[in-house]
Structures are given as structure tokens and as C-alpha cells.
Amino acid sequence: MPALKARDQRVSHAPIRIANLTPQERRLAVKNALRYLPPKHHSLLSKEFAQELDQFGHIYMYRFVPDFEMRAHPIDEYPAKCREGAAIMLY
Q: What are the GO MF terms of this UniProt record (predicted)?
């Protein structure tokens, strides 16, 4: 499990959204975010994701933001049989 990370203040972020969710919708948002992760981590991450929802109005899963720079490469650098396939790949 990656270490907990703070929001990177060096980059521009979307405005904080006001989460006008009912308690049931809020639980569903956290449950939907957790479905991608092993159940053994749910107790820790559910609190973390709920806090992000309260603080930013959205669940960003900052813990899982990569430590390396994400950038697009020229489409011709992707190994693909067709241009459409290259367009959906991440390198």
C-alpha cells in the first residue's frame, strides 16, 4: 500500500466542489471508490476517501497518485497495430 500523500500544491487543481450528497449517496460514493481495491484495505481507505469527499467534494485517491510525471507521448511512439489502439494506451 503506498504511503498517504498530501495534495500537491505545485500544480493547479480544479475548484473545490460542494458535495451536496445525502448520507446514503455519500456512502455509495465511498463504496464505489473502494470497489477497485482489495477488501483488506477498505477500513483504512474508507475513512480517507470520506475525508477527501468532505474536504474537496470529490474522491481523488491521492494516496495512489504516481510519484513520476505523467505525460503524453507522440502517438507514433506507442506500439500498436492501428492508430486508434495507440490513442487509448498509456506508456
A: urocanate hydratase activity
Q: One digit per residue, pLDDT tens: the chain, 91 residues?
A: 899 998 888 888 888 888 789 999 999 999 999 999 999 999 999 999 999 999 999 999 999 998 888 888 899 888 989 988 888 876 4
Quote the CA–CA distance of 28 and 53 in Å, as a whole number.
Answer: 12
Neighbour tally for 26: CB within 10 Å: 14
Q: Do 29 and 45 meet the contact criterion of CB atoms below 8 Å apart?
A: no
pTM comes to 0.74
Can you read off the three cell numbers belonging to residue 47? 475513512
Question: What do you get for the CA distance between the two ends of the chain, in Å?
Answer: 22
Q: Where are the beta strands (DSSP E) in the chain?
A: none
Q: In whole angstroms, what is the distance from residue 15 CA to residue 85 CA?
A: 33
